[in-house]
């Protein structure tokens, strides 16, 4: 089977992770465990997950001319990802994410200094020839919205499905919603975008804004699809979680690969949920992304 081509427009960060007994309350100081450093960033995470899912991946983003940036670029290149449009900035430092990981519930809090992730629409235009070769284009909101919109316009002009993971959530222009084929917020982001806390109502509201389909991720409750055929819920298989960082990125990548492979959307989502569930059993955002063979074996075990 021909490998699908995925283009990811997005962020690359270095994740600095501290595990603590629980997440702190506002104004509270906690003693945590050791500090760990991992390659991260929603865009780079999705690129690695898609590459391990068997796709040919190109990554469009930015990094600083520093040790973090050089390590990030080398890591993506080692995964077989095309990094010709992963540009270096002499003026801005590489992105960094500070992550607190709760030991008991494995939930996390993340703050990102996006820095060199601030790519411009002109950067997107320079990458247009590669974007136009993709089977699916994926983006998130850790890069500026004008650049995301330009990528969406290129996708629409070329007839390429555009998957937007609106994380972190910002108010979006109506014109951008109409360029999105698949919108993939988590339930908190969906609520911020719509003012509605019920996932089904939020999904309907987002579709009315112009998206072809909406997938809302629900954490330990799985994922909810809303499209022209109605609602479809995929539950999470039972696993023992170790690290939830990057789980949503894993799901987005596998969903994009499934769309690129022309799988029925419900089957693509089922596979994506299983891939994300397997990811949470492994440490590190990018290091924990499961290879395709592992996901296929996991699916077989959980289907018995």
From TrEMBL:
Q: Where does substrate bind?
A: 13-15, 41-45, 142, 249
Q: Which GO terms describe its molecular function?
A: ATP binding; metal ion binding; ribokinase activity
- Lineage of the organism: Bacteria, Pseudomonadati, Verrucomicrobiota, Terrimicrobiia, Terrimicrobiales
Native organism: Terrimicrobium sacchariphilum
Keyword Magnesium assigned = yes
This one is known as Ribokinase
> What keywords were assigned to this record?
ATP-binding, Carbohydrate metabolism, Cytoplasm, Kinase, Magnesium, Metal-binding, Nucleotide-binding, Potassium, Transferase
Q: What does this protein do?
A: Catalyzes the phosphorylation of ribose at O-5 in a reaction requiring ATP and magnesium. The resulting D-ribose-5-phosphate can then be used either for sythesis of nucleotides, histidine, and tryptophan, or as a component of the pentose phosphate pathway.
Family per UniProt? Belongs to the carbohydrate kinase PfkB family. Ribokinase subfamily.
Any Pfam family: PfkB
The record's listing under HAMAP family reads:
Ribokinase
Q: Does the keyword RNA-binding apply?
A: no
Per its UniProt record, what PANTHER family does this chain match? Answer: RIBOKINASE, SUGAR KINASE
Specify which residues bind K(+) according to the UniProt entry for this protein: 243, 245, 279, 282, 284
Question: Domain Carbohydrate kinase PfkB: where?
Answer: 5-290
The UniProt record gives the binding positions of ATP as 186, 217-222, 248-249
Any GO CC annotation of this UniProt entry: cytosol
**What cofactors does this protein use?**
Mg(2+)
Task: Please name the GO terms of the biological process aspect recorded for this protein, alphabetically.
Answer: D-ribose catabolic process
Q: How does it assemble?
A: Homodimer.
InterPro entries, alphabetized? PfkB_dom (IPR011611), Ribo/fructo_kinase (IPR002139), Ribokinase (IPR011877), Ribokinase-like (IPR029056)
Localization of this protein:
Cytoplasm
User: Any note on cofactor binding?
Assistant: Requires a divalent cation, most likely magnesium in vivo, as an electrophilic catalyst to aid phosphoryl group transfer. It is the chelate of the metal and the nucleotide that is the actual substrate.
Q: Which Enzyme Commission number(s) are on file for it?
A: 2.7.1.15
């Amino acid at each position: 089977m021909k490998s699908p081509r995925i283009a990811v427009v997005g962020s690359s960060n270095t994740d600095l992770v501290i595990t603590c007994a629980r997440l702190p309350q506002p104004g509270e100081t906690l003693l945590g465990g050791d500090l760990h450093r991992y390659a991260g960033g929603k865009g780079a995470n999705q690129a690695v997950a898609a590459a391990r899912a068997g796709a040919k991946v190109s990554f469009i983003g930015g990094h600083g001319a520093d040790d973090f940036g050089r390590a990030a670029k080398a890591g993506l290149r080692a995964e077989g990802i095309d990094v010709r449009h992963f540009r270096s900035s002499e003026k801005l430092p590489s992105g960094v994410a500070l992550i607190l990981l709760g030991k008991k519930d494995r939930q996390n809090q993340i703050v990102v200094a996006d820095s060199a992730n601030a790519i411009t629409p002109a950067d997107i235009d320079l990458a247009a020839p590669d974007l136009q070769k993709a089977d699916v284009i994926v983006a998130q909101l850790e890069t500026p919205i004008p650049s995301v919109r330009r990528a969406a316009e290129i996708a629409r002009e070329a007839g390429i499905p555009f998957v937007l993971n609106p994380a972190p959530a910002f108010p979006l222009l109506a014109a951008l919603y109409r360029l999105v084929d698949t919108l993939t917020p988590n339930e908190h982001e969906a609520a911020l975008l719509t003012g509605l806390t019920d996932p089904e109502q939020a999904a309907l509201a987002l579709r009315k804004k112009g998206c072809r389909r909406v997938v809302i991720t629900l954490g330990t409750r799985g994922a909810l699809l809303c499209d022209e055929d109605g609602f479809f819920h995929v539950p999470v298989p039972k696993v023992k979680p170790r690290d939830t960082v990057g789980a949503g990125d894993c799901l987005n990548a596998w969903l994009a690969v499934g769309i690129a492979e022309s799988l029925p959307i419900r089957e693509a989502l089922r596979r994506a949920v299983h891939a994300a569930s397997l990811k949470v059993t492994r440490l590190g955002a990018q290091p924990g992304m499961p290879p395709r063979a592992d996901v296929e074996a996991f699916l077989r075990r959980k289907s018995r």
